[in-house]
Amino acid sequence: EEVSSFTESPGGEIEIIDVTDNSQSPIAAILKSLKFRDDDEFTITVAQQRNTEKNVEIYHNELKTDPEQRASISLRRAAHRQYLVRGLHYLNYHFQGLDASQPWLCYWIINSLDILGFVPDPSENIENDKDIVPHQTLSDIVKFLSSCVDKNFGSYAGGPFQLAHLAPTYAAINAICVVGTEEAYESVDREKIYKFLLAMKDESGGFRMHEDGELDIRATYCALNTGYLLHLLDEKLLRNVGSFLSSCQTYEGGISAEPGNEAH
């Protein structure tokens, strides 16, 4: 079966492109344009880049020439589920470097499970569905996130007994929204988080990640996202945000992390 796509030519005519034809394939053209240009210089990095590109080409060519290979592409949902659920209960020592990112681990895992369709709608009775994440597991996530709240600031830290920080606050609130249960929403102290957001607000219009912390685009996004999800955004939180963002635009046209840095 011919695999085709349609594009409109400059003259307005519809042109049929066979995407399995390497000479016409937009994907092939993209791969070619992305190839690393090393100017015949050799380094270990260049060698690794060349090997990576060759490996990508091998799989691309197999899929391009073999219809059965294309039809066999699948997402192994059950295997992903097993890996993700295991991560909620156990992580090996390789993850110790993420000790200050524990709410992020909860968010990454529960969000992935939700995308795969394994997080239940709170209104549905799914106790007999062994593939769906049990309500008890969702409750355990909420309880763990509550243990990450900094008692001094009332917002979320990177782990129990750590410092309140806008990044894990963002992760925790988004994880709670994915869980979506009444218990999850009731665990959030909106008033204290609002006070924390105000405390992180800078005169420039941006936000700091934590007390005396970095003042940058990341912190500002985390603060605004958290405020939006919790319906906290008001004139005080939004004051001069636009000016701060504008001050981060560079001569390159892009946005830097903070005023004076390169666009990224």
Automatic annotation (TrEMBL):
Pfam families: Prenyltrans
Keywords: Metal-binding, Prenyltransferase, Repeat, Transferase, Zinc
Family annotation (Gene3D superfamilies): 1.50.10.20
Cofactors, names only: Zn(2+)
SUPFAM superfamilies reported in the protein's UniProt record: Terpenoid cyclases/Protein prenyltransferases
InterPro entries: PGGT1B-like, Prenyltrans, Terpenoid_cyclase/PrenylTrfase
Domain Prenyltransferase alpha-alpha toroid: 75-264
GO molecular function: metal ion binding; protein farnesyltransferase activity
CC annotations in GO: protein farnesyltransferase complex
Family label: Belongs to the protein prenyltransferase subunit beta family.
Protein name: Prenyltransferase alpha-alpha toroid domain-containing protein
Organism, scientific name: Vannella robusta
Lineage, broadest ranks: Eukaryota, Amoebozoa, Discosea, Flabellinia, Vannellidae
